[in-house]
Amino acid sequence: MDNSLNLKDLNSPFLNFVESPLQYLHKAVLKHPFYEQLINQDLKEGQFTSFLNQQEHVWRFLSEEMILLSKLNYPKCIHRILVQNAQLSLMTAGSLSIQLDKFKGNACNLTTACKEYIGFLKALTDKRLFFSIFAAILPRFWLATHLHKRCLKLNTHNHPYKQFIKHCITINAEQQTMKIIQSLDDLIQTISKAEQAEMQQIFMDAALHECELLNEAYKRKD
């Protein structure tokens, strides 16, 4: 892969195929009021800690599942992506855990939206079909990439959540996101119409779960 490329330059058959769910991910999730209030310093601490707790759990779950999957007999190119996914997910979870400790002291129990999202991902990883798994995790990596780009433009001086903004700047998932997309690009034209439709639905379901996480945290009153 040419490391000089970035997402905006990528001519992706898979992204074209999931254009409608991708628009939803951009409009309903990336531009969710939760992120707008976080960036504008209007978010309540209880909302933020709920969000940190959710995100830490999902990223840690992904790191564990990617490690387990990397031990299976996948092609070398897929194995490499799984290992790299695990490393990035673990690094992200660790950073979020440190931030959560500063606010709450320890992680809270799984929330309803978090349980449902992890259950959705677990059902797919148990089937061990890497194309379904990649379609399911792509929304999360895509969001991390775009949050990174957005946070690069922010001034963190006196921002109450500056550690999270710095975290987003530090975690650059773009190259990993592109590797996932390119794997899906290679596959999308070789599978049946029914399998293509299934992948599109999986991508959309994952985007809906991402939105529900934000809805749940945003509704916190404390």
From TrEMBL:
Domain Thiaminase-2/PQQC: 25-219
InterPro entries, A to Z: Haem_Oase-like_multi-hlx, Thiaminase-2/PQQC, Thiamine_Salvage_TenA
Pfam families: TENA_THI-4 (PF03070)
Domain of life: Bacteria
One Gene Ontology cellular component: cytosol
PANTHER family hit by this protein: BIFUNCTIONAL TH2 PROTEIN, SI:CH1073-67J19.1-RELATED
Protein name, per record: Thiaminase-2/PQQC domain-containing protein
